[in-house]
Give the backbone structure.
Amino acid sequence: MTAIKPEISLVIPVFNESEGVTSFVANLMSIVTSTGLHSEIILIDDGSHDETFYTIAELNSSFTNVKGLRFTRNFGKEAALLAGLEAATGDAVITLDSDGQHPPDLIPEMIVKWREGAKIVHGVKSAGSYENRYTRARARVFNSLLSRFGHINTMGSSDFKLLDREAVDILVHSLPEHRRFYRGLADWMGFPSAEVPFTVRDRESGSSKWSTLKLMSMAGVAIISFTSAPLRIITILGMVTMLFGVLVGLDAVISVINGKAVSGFATLIISLLLIGSFIMISLGIIGEYIAKIYDEIKDRPVYIVQSKIGFDDSDKNS
Ligand code: UDP
Ligand code: MG
């Protein structure tokens, strides 16, 4: 098969999305075709339990530029994005969700900004995109922490992005971390960038694949990958506790000098509990960093591909 080299690659992680993926790809195809660019659409099935991969195979028989990768199990969206970026061959790569929440109609605008010189075009969520005040506040706290301590800007940031080939190559070859945070890494590279604002719509079908636990784990990965501030906070906390101890100590000495009995059984218990909890939390934080080092040092692959469709080296029987 002698395929024409694509100018633009679309990378789409899919997990249990058989319900909506066909209409999504059909719509995407018409938008991309209207740009007049040669394209490839790479769908990464992140270990779906439904018919998603079968649907991808059907799409591939209708459109030769649709390709599919299937993971052996659910490795997570970050792993799927990496697999897609590694497999993509386009001069630019656009990453987007398969549920219509990243509006494909903005792709032509992203391409214009790329042509104007931006190496990365970020799809940025507008304020009205959040489901409620709680999710907005949660995103704001998380992004402010990252920007304050990690010096990366993820405010309103999403995984809907266009990356120039130069940025893709660096992301894939020079940033070999295993526990990844795509949004943060894209900003961290520091290339000239542009933004395209969008409002997150309701999902076209199915339900969100993120549990609160998965979200918390992603926040943990992001913070630990981009800043060692929590470790420094432990030191500061230790100093504050020491100062408190010195003050209480002085107070005790003065009381003894003045002939007053040193009282404060309650104070003793409270300080013991407080200091005990500070120590345990601090150990937990240090533990998180050690766990990250442990994960990196094991050097296991980020994902395992079970089968491929539409690639030159695809399994013929898949
Ligand atoms: N996704 C994935 N692996 C996962 C969870 C999600 O590949 O473990 C995909 C999912 O199919 C979708 C995208 O990542 O295309 C975003 O997921 P979702 O819409 O569930 O997240 P939300 O929009 O709620 O943040
Ligand atoms: Mg979604």
Remarks:
- The first strand starts at residue 8 and ends at 14.
